[in-house]
Write a structure and sequence with these properties.
The protein has 223 residues and is an alpha+beta fold. It is built from four helices and 17 strands. The longest helix is centred in the C-terminal third of the chain and has 16 residues.
Amino acid sequence: MAARHRNRLREEAPHLVGIGTEPEFAIGQRALLLRSPDGNLLWDCITFLDEKTIGTIKARGGIRAIAISHPHFYSAMVEWSEQFDAQIFLHAKDRHWVMRKSPRIQFWEDTMLHLWDGLMLINCGGHFEGGTVLHWPAGANGKGALLTGDIIQVVQDRRYVSFMRSYPNLIPLGATAVDHILKTIEPFPFDQIYGAWWKANVLSDAKAAVRRSAERYLRWINA
């Protein structure tokens, strides 16, 4: 890959840096480096990692830990963790999807896991039992933000999101799973959502967008 690809780092928001590979590789997702006073968190992962990327991230404070929304983005997480001496947080419900074992992986089991600086991992399920989103209370100028991967998928109309069992096969989640996602994230304030791809972001009124989207979704799958 080093002969044909490079990584691009771009500011997605204050203290939030997107990291994506060009030309696109596989499904073309980008990771997010959340810069926080007590340590940086890498949210989700990409496959390609080169010396330039390592140096650029170290210049921005390195990576204290890696947290991943679901197994589709496990990617080269162990290589990333070794380069930055970082811990990896994965939900225990997805333990059997880990193909490369590492002592750096910490499996957590509850609905929520407190990290640092108010950061919170939330297990809300979705297209994997261990599906996780990250609540960033300092995001959106203190109004709160969610980093969701595609557990809560930002769609082309940025006023809406969606919830799928299988994106490649266009199989929707059932009503019970969607209702569980809504109830799990309800206690958390957030005005923005940052999804799994470049520009896949809801930049205002995101909590209302999730609620509105779920109502529309449930109305049609129950029709």
